[in-house]
Amino acid sequence: MNSKGIMPAPFDEMSSADGNSRPGYELIKRWLDSETPESLGHRRLEAELLFRRIGITFAVYGDEEAEERIIPFDIVPRVLTKTEWRKLATGLEQRVTALNMFLADIYGTGEILKAGIIPSDLVYRNPYFRPEMMGLKLPHDIYVQIAGIDLVRTDAEDFYVLEDNARTPSGVSYMLENREVMMRVFPDLFAEYRIDPVETYPEELLATLTSVAPNSAPGEPAVALLTPGPLNSAYYEHSFLADKLGIDLVEGSDLLVRDNVVFMRTTEGLKRVDVLYRRLDDDFLDPLTFLPTSVLGVPGLMNAYRAGNITLANAVGTGVADDKAVYSYMPEIVRFYLGAEPILKNVPTWRCREKDACAHVLDNLHDLVVKEVAGSGGYGMLIGPAADKATRDIFAEKIKADPDNFIAQPTLALSTCPTVVDAGIAPRHVDLRPFVLYGADKVRIVPGGLTRVALKEGSLVVNSSQGGGTKDTWVLDA
């Protein structure tokens, strides 16, 4: 919002104010200008049929109409230049490095807390803080091997980090399948553009996971992917990634712990597992340590973890870094551990746990986006300018009742990309989730990531569970 409370026009990633194409979009603009709504509709249908044939689905809990859905896909790619991507990749590596140092510190000597940079209660009272991790030495001090960092853009220069996903970031299967479908539907565009590949992600992920294996692993580390099972909303991705990596997809019942070593049951007997890429929340991992009623985890897994015989990716307790109040301290976290200014900016954030900030938020709900500190998926949030007074009043009462549970941010004019709609082409708001792989040997970031698009006109919510879709993201190798 500007000083008069008017939302500025969003940044158009394809076209400048004078109608000229921005760098990288020249060919896309010519292609779109040459297409009719009918031909675009035909291409969109062709892409949808491919997705249905492949079987790419996601589940929406509580949706009675359709538990399994095909994720909406837009056929107009989002384009980034090599210069734009280099800056983003450098900033992403810096940020995930700082996140790992922060997590190692708070589960270790807590220097950042002693220095008063972050309030101790924000960490120790966090629902995702795991006291069981205190003093536990992890291989290579790496807590976040796979990070999904959500970025939004507001102008030609500025990308902002909207949130960090350090527990079990999802969506990479859509990034890979989006590229495959685009290459099938638009081979002519790929022949004219030089586009950095994303197809190397599975081998990069496997190399990362192998690099963080415990020192006790005999020979070549054995890696498996732990899933909650077919009823999980992201099960498609779990099975997809296990297949691409060439590793076993296992459920808790497939594993057992003997002498603090994790084994997988196979037809040929027990096989040792050294690294678990786990897509299972902390609470369900080990009924002997966490939720006693969990039938999804592995009894004794935490004992093997403490003994240094298994690497969990990502580590237990990384959810503290996902907290939106902790997020607000990321500039200070980067400075504290790295002695450098953050390359990627945070969105300005008011912490409602602070009295003056809370008063400002309550006075300006009509202008702000309010989020629960542990919320995700676009749930538990208020977009002030789009909400009626009654809704804002309800949220105000929630904030007053539990101010520690909320943060607020300005309503950003998120950038737009051209998107196919029923009437032809129209701008729609987008964000970007690049995937950062943090190994013991190096940091790997495949160029691009998952672009999510708010398909509803005027909507700022890009989550697929709330009507959003995805696009292929092209980083031009030029």
TrEMBL record:
Pfam families: CP_ATPgrasp_2. Gene3D superfamilies: 3.30.1490.270, 3.40.50.11290. InterPro entries: ATP-dep_Glu-Cys_Ligase-2 (IPR051680), CP_ATPgrasp_2 (IPR025841), UCP005522 (IPR016450). Residues 77-454 form the Circularly permuted ATP-grasp type domain. It comes from Bauldia litoralis. This is Uncharacterized conserved protein, circularly permuted ATPgrasp superfamily.
